[in-house]
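FW: tagging you since you asked about this chain on Friday. Here's the raw sequence from the shared folder, copied in full. Didn't touch anything.
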Amino acid sequence: MITDFLKHLFPRVVLERNLRFSYTYCLGGLAFTAFLIMICSGMLLLVYYQPTPERAFSSVLFLESSVWGGKSLRSLHRVTSHALLVLILLHTLRVILTGAYQRPRQLNWVVGCLLLFLALFEAYTGYLLPFDQLAFWATQTGMELLATLPFGTLLRALLVPDGVGQALSLLRFYALHIVIIPLTVLALSSLHFYRVRKNKGVLPYL
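HL: got it, structure written out here
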């Protein structure tokens, strides 16, 4: 799978007509590139961020006001997260409109949907981390909405066992945002690219 993933990123042969720009040009690849940028910028943000209710907001303020390039770095991370969601949604729309979810690509369609949901969940978990009033109340609203769904109360207790804004809840959102969800996205992305190569057809030079 890893070999096919690398071959997908660096193909031996590319047809000239597939290099022409179009309105759907490499939306999946662009989304993955945005994800990689988020990983790189996020790793730099980790140097200063402190995941505790007492220090989270002040560490963000310190990053923006006292660290050279800190404000630009945080802005890059936030804007790239917006770009990632837009690109994934456009990629999903293209798949729907072109019927690329049909046989033999049903599995890849499911994997792509999982990636979309994970990207949304990643954005949601990251929203709480600055720990300002907007982050707190947005997360609180999301948790109340979650509780209305089947098994929502159980999921809410798992995500915020001590309440939104408390130490354990912030730590769980932090762990989800920087480790669990990104690693899952990387694994599913590898499977997604592998299935693209295995199904062929979409890219005739594979």
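FW: The domain at 2-8+25-198 is CATH 1.20.810.10 (Cytochrome Bc1 Complex; Chain C).
HL: agreed, and The mean pLDDT is 89.
FW: great, closing this out.
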